[in-house]
Amino acid sequence: MELEANINQYLSSLSLQHFAGIELVTELQQKHLSRYAFSSINAMYGERLLLDPLPLFSRLVTNKQGGYCFEHNKVAFLALQQLGFTVRPVLARVMLNGSSSNPRSHRMTLLNLDGERYLVDVGFGVKSPRVPININQALTIQGRQTYQVQKTADTVKVTLLEEGEAPLTLYHVDLAEVFESDCEVAHFYSHQHPEAAFVNNLVVSRITDCHRYLLRNQSYFEWHECDGSVTETKVESFAQLEQLVKETFLLETPRAVLKSVYDKVLTRAANKPVER
According to its UniProt record, which protein family does this protein belong to (predicted)? Predict the structure, then answer.
């Protein structure tokens, strides 16, 4: 009953207007991305981030702490499941660095609906699609973004195509059956291993209808997708970071936690080898 109440709190926070079908899923995905920021703050701080539903909803929804794929996509998965959709988790290899040997370290949701299958992803940071990706269609178009799907019997490759940009492969999705225990293993590595990306880099993002906001270590970016412009700002003080986290990313991070993370960012920047 407590889990049901937490899911209902989450759904109520999204103020959903659709009541069924792919329109409901799309609205949930878009409003989640706009309201609940992607964040590596807790992972970088060193928190053990339990994926048990009750602490998960408390951290992400009630306390507005943000999170990354294993947190965001489990919340969305449980909500879609409670709404009566046929869903299951899947794991993917993130391909943003171009390496084909990356581990399966990204969780998303596979939705079966009206004879079609969709990838629903609310936890891929600033590159998260705003709409479910139909894996039975070669292309999914949403605004300035076009997502190309290349499918085999066992995998799906999703590539972002944008005018004026080189094709960017987002992930290779493994369609095999996945258990929560599989997600726990990948999640543990992603937020506890000393060399994991989110343990070593501050990454915060939020996506609205016309904007994609990204904070990466000491750089802050805004993509104004309605007019195609991009701005970049250097984060030069803790006060500036604190304001961004609260006002742009809508997070309520404890000040001591954020200060510890900011100090780690500065230390890593100071120790970074100079490129020649």
Answer: Belongs to the arylamine N-acetyltransferase family.
Report the alpha-carbon distance of residue 198 to residue 221 in Å, rounded.
Answer: 18
Q: What is the dihedral of CA 227, 232, 237, 240, to 10 degrees?
A: 10
**How many residues in total does the chain contain?**
276
> pLDDT, tens digit, for every residue of 50-73?
999 999 999 999 999 999 999 999
Please give the structure tokens belonging to residue 177: 């059956």
Residue that the structure tokens 């094709």 belong to = 167
Residue 90 CA to residue 104 CA, distance in Å, equals 10
Residue 267 confidence (pLDDT) above 80: yes
Phi, psi of 124 (to 5 degrees): -110, 20
DSSP 127: G
Q: How far apart are CA 100 and CA 102, in angstroms?
A: 6
User: What would the pLDDT profile of 134-169 be if each residue is shown by its tens digit?
Assistant: 999 999 998 888 999 999 999 999 999 988 789 999
Looking at the whole model, is its pTM more than 0.90? yes
In the chain, the amino acid numbered 56 is L
Residue 4: helix, strand or coil by DSSP?
Answer: helix
Q: Check if the beta carbon of residue 107 is closer than 8 Å to that of residue 75.
A: no
Q: pLDDT at position 165, please?
A: 85
**For 31-35, which contacts have Cβ atoms below 8 Å and span 24 or more sequence positions?**
32/72, 32/75, 32/76, 32/122, 33/122, 33/128, 33/130, 33/206, 33/207, 33/208, 34/206, 34/207, 34/208, 34/209, 35/250
Report whether pLDDT(3) > 90.
yes
For residue 261, count CB atoms less than 10 angstroms from its CB and return exposed for 0-12, middle for 13-18, buried for 19 or more. buried
